[in-house]
UniProtKB/TrEMBL annotation:
Protein name stated in the entry: FXL18 protein
GO process annotations (BP): SCF-dependent proteasomal ubiquitin-dependent protein catabolic process
PROSITE patterns xref list: FBOX (PS50181)
Leader sequence segment: none
Organism expressing this protein natively: Rhynochetos jubatus
Family matches, as Gene3D superfamilies: 1.20.1280.50, Ribonuclease Inhibitor (3.80.10.10)
Any one annotated GO CC term: SCF ubiquitin ligase complex
Entry-linked InterPro entries: F-box-like_dom_sf (IPR036047), F-box_dom (IPR001810), FBXL18_F-box (IPR047948), FBXL18_LRR (IPR045627), LRR_dom_sf (IPR032675)
Domain F-box: 19-66
Amino acid sequence: FFFLPQEVISGESEEESNGVNLMEFSDEILLHILSYVPCTDLVLNVRRTCRKLATLCLDKSLTQTVLLQKDYKVNKDKVKQLMRDIGKEIYQLNMAGCYWLPSSTIDHVTRCKNLVKLNLSGCHVTSLRLSKMLSTLQHLRSLAIDVNPGFDASQLSSECKATLSRVSELKQTLYTPSYGVVPCCTSLEKLLLYFEILDRSREGFMLSGQLMVGESNVPHYQNLRVFYARLAPGYVNQEVVRLYLAVLSDRTPENLHAFLISAPGSFAETGATKNLLDSMARNVRLDALQLPKAWINGSGLLQHLKFNNPFYFSFSRCTLSGGHLIQRVINGGKDLKSLTSLNLSGCIHCLAPESLFRKAEDDIDSSILESLVVSCCNLRHLNLSAAHHHSSEGIGNHLCQLLSRLKHLLSLALPVCSITDVAANVEKPPAASNLVPQTFGRKVRIGIQTYPRNLTDQANQKIESSVFWALMGSLRVLETLEIIGSSFSSAMPRNEPAIRNSLPPCVRAQSVGDSEVAAISQLTYLQSLTLAQLPNILTGSGLVNIGLQCQHLRTLSLANLGMMGKVVYMSALMDMLKHCKCLRDLRLEQPYFCAGAQFFQALSHCSSLQRLCIVSRSGTLQSDAVMSFMANCLEVIMCHMFMGESLTVCKNLQQSIVRSFQADRPALNVVIFPLLHEDLTEVIRDVPMRHLDEITLFKSRVAEEPPNLWW
């Protein structure tokens, strides 16, 4: 927050004071400033400083919506006091991901009699507590909850069911096969389902996708406008979602305008799902669409579906060709000005006229991309990662040149091989010193030059007229950028042992390195950056440029940069971190990473850091340096390290951190574990979903979901 002058606290004014008296600002300006302060601080601290702030801090514009979802300092007592002071004024309460709060904390929500929206995703809520709470919230219209093992819908009271019958928006995360509260919600218009059911219990028993006894009630979808389902890997999740879809296949809601199913791997189409899609093609006009790849590949579904004013499409991992994309989806450039988010991740043929005889590494057809750019000129989120999008020779035909026309882009994901200059690859192959060995040995020794310290020196190494440099210069409002190798895979998959081998980078990507990273520093408003599998990183000098120029950077994820047997960019990374005052999340994945005293000393400059994740095969750490870092960086509440240390070293360090800092940091979550240990998957399952989904597991997040899917 801000420091209040002593004269403000005492109620006195001194004209001779050189400082700015905050109380001289208008109420409108002060309310705007106060809107950036966590509600708990406003109500429990700031309003006690003076009479004027005591009044302003209770203004309806500040108390009607209470966001606790990333207030990691909040505890049970603060929530209790907050609800006691302003409970009746709260209309929207977001406690998503507050995993550290005991379940009894939910009891205090009953004071919020006027609640309209409530988000309890990630909170510990039993069936009985949920019933007691919802029985008092008669105005509730939007609800988000988790359904955990032991949930029993028969324990819900009639008053609770009456409240649920008025709920029109429901977000439900399932950790056990169940309908949850869906059958009670007879007025549903928006239904979001997240399936996180594991195939095996902790005891090793195989789980069934059959619903529990008493779970035979049928969901009510007649008023449904939005249906969204996201599945974690596993066959049980697929079995359960089919039960939810069975009702839709019998009768498709007339007002359905968004139908989205995100399913990894293979999710086969059945007779019931085919009937559902046929019914949708006949009866509804969609604004948002995402389907499993098996439901689209080889079918003529897209040419039969009708769209109204589409704002989101995801064809992730589909074999959809560029010809079909233009003809069946973009419809020759008609009616696509409304599209703001497009996910073509893993859609390897989406920029080629046909896919039958095409290799994934063949050049793209620039006319297809040009049609896409012209038709979807208002795109704000675009994902083209996990594919080989190689540009051909020709003036103005490069992918980067065409994308530079999308002036409204806020987030962009590209494969590494798509940003290289064609001439650089055709006319001048990478020098021998730039060819990066992709083995995990230490036998190859490469001389490293001192990296340049500023943009001017960097420009001397590579002309700033490169297509990628020009693209970065044109996307002035870009906030999220992902540059990911087309063959990159993280060493930490979701429900499997750690990956021991990685595929080599694309040949076209071999020349992408420090100069391209330096070009990113032109993005003044960049908030989130992901760089993975950039093979020609020799010093990491571009990282320093980013640290200096991108002062709004909050999230940084670096993986497999440069040679794999040595962390060649460590010195530059440490210099970069000294400038990242706003950085909150840092994820590093690199073999042989040494998390030692020098690294943690540099990281301590990141005064806003909250979450740290390091994934390193054969990596090492210094326990004393980690403890010192945790003591210096008071905001850190998540420390995940998956390294090459022994189980004993990892356990001792984890216990020391928890013992030393848990009392002062209620949200502290520490996992330090050997990366290649056979029990890694069992450890991962205990990580709070908020951290697991947002930082610990690597994935492309651009256009992963429709914008503003949930509040």
